[in-house]
Specification:
alpha/beta; Rossmann fold; five-stranded parallel β-sheet; 10 helices; 8 strands; binds cytidine-5'-monophosphate
């Protein structure tokens, strides 16, 4: 079973996806971590973020290992576990440069499909998972929330991780990313193929209950019709 969860930063999709995977006892893939890992590698190698060819060279030559479990996605670059370093604000700021290079997207999409084929079942979370990577997934979700609530959540996460950030900085960073990111899941919404959940006023446990309820009801329907 493949379940896709897409939506903007701060919509709560990472934590909800992880909790859903744990409840269903299937692996969880954080595809943002894969884009961040290549951004991290590009920073380490001093690549020019405006030179697509340089970024593509980093993506082609870096060894990216992704380990998915029901409660984690751990990422290694060239043998080093960088999972924690990926949350650094410097990495967040440059990931968009990496994510807009089509050659890099093609490479990571291929890798995501290989991971799914290997594992069989997956809760996979990102921006393009339902529209591009797994259009035939069993269930597609799009999570969203107001900008204010998303900025508030992201700011608390970053402060908890030890980063000094202000609400204004986080809010501006989210708005910049929204413009680029939202194009990726719009086709899925336009086709009416996704279940949309607005998490603005929901507690995390309520979001996970909704996700799990929808998945289990789909499974029952599939079992009856099959
Ligand atoms: O989800 P997260 O905030 O870790 O993603 C970091 C960035 O990676 C996003 O802002 C987006 O630019 C990019 N990304 C993407 N496609 C995905 C996942 C992430 O373009 N499937």
């Amino acid at each position: 079973m493949i379940i896709t969860i897409d939506g903007p930063a701060g919509s709560g999709k990472s934590t909800a996806a992880r909790k859903l995977a744990a409840r269903l006892e299937i692996p969880y893939l954080d595809t943002g971590a894969m884009y961040r890992a290549l951004a991290y590698a590009a920073l380490q190698r001093g690549a020019d973020m405006r030179q697509e060819a340089d970024l593509l060279e980093v993506a082609r030559t870096a060894t990216l290992d992704v380990d998915c479990g029901p409660t984690h996605t751990r990422v290694r670059v060239d043998g080093h576990d960088v999972s924690e370093a990926l949350r650094d604000p410097r990495v967040s700021e440059v990931t968009a440069f990496v994510a807009r290079v089509q050659g890099i997207r093609d490479l990571l999409v291929r890798k995501q499909r290989e991971i799914a084929a290997d594992l069989g079942s997956l809760v996979t979370e990102g921006r393009d998972q339902g529209s591009v990577v797994f259009p035939d997934a069993d269930v597609h979700f799009v999570l969203d929330a107001s900008l204010e609530r998303r900025a508030e959540r992201r700011m608390h996460e970053m402060i908890a991780d030890g980063h000094e950030v202000t609400f204004a900085w986080v809010s501006e960073n989210l708005q910049t990313r929204d413009g680029i990111d939202s194009r990726q899941w719009l086709p899925l919404l336009a086709a009416g193929r996704a279940i949309i959940i607005d998490t603005t006023d929901l507690k995390l446990s309520e979001v996970v209950d909704r996700l799990e309820g929808e998945v289990r009801s789909r499974c029952r329907t599939a079992a009856h019709s099959g």
